[in-house]
Amino acid sequence: MTSETELSRIGISLPKNLLDKFDDILKLRGYSSRSEGIRDSIRSYITHYQWISDVKGERQGVVTMVYDHDHRGLLQTLTEIQHDYANIIQASLHSHVTHNKCLEVILIRGDGTELKNIAEKLMAQKGVESVKLTTIPIED
């Protein structure tokens, strides 16, 4: 076997509800095993990371974020991060999806590296369920 086809075994711990949702998706999409689904998910994660790493130059974009409003200290942390990046944030919209789940949309403009940095900082917070950065280059 070459290094590209060698398999490594890993062990992971997941909350039951997350694993149940993952299993449901695997069944719907016709995966033959969890391993196949996990490999596909990791490939997708790597592709997304490479794409987001390529965000360079002056850009306009939007960050969409879903988070748990009740997670201890999260609102304060998210506010502090947004204040740290006030120079690139043009506007934000906050919506209450459920009692404890919130959707926030943040309009940003600036250097691609800074746009990527704010998205990654938001993404790293416990209680944040998802963050998506979408950008386009600014053309003269």
Largest sheet: 4 strands, antiparallel
Please provide the ordered H/E string of secondary-structure elements.
HHEHEEHE
What multimeric state do the chains show? single chain
The CATH topology assignment of the largest domain is Alpha-Beta Plaits
| Derived structural class | alpha+beta
What is the β-strand count?
4
Give the fraction of residues assigned to helices: 40-55%
CA-atom Rg in angstroms: 18 Å
How would you characterize this protein structure?
The radius of gyration is 18 Å and the shape is globular. The N and C termini lie far apart (51 Å). The mean pLDDT is 90. It has helices at 16-29, 34-53, 74-84, 112-123; strands at 58-68, 89-96, 101-111, 128-137. Strands 2-3-1-4 form a 4-stranded antiparallel β-sheet, covered by helices on one side. The protein is of the alpha+beta class. Helices cover 41% and strands 29% of the residues. The protein folds into 2 domains: 16-52, Orthogonal Bundle (Arc Repressor Mutant), CATH 1.10.1220; 57-137, ACT-like. Chain A, domain 2 (Alpha-Beta Plaits).
Which labels suit this protein?
Alpha-Beta Plaits, 4 strands, alpha+beta, Arc Repressor Mutant
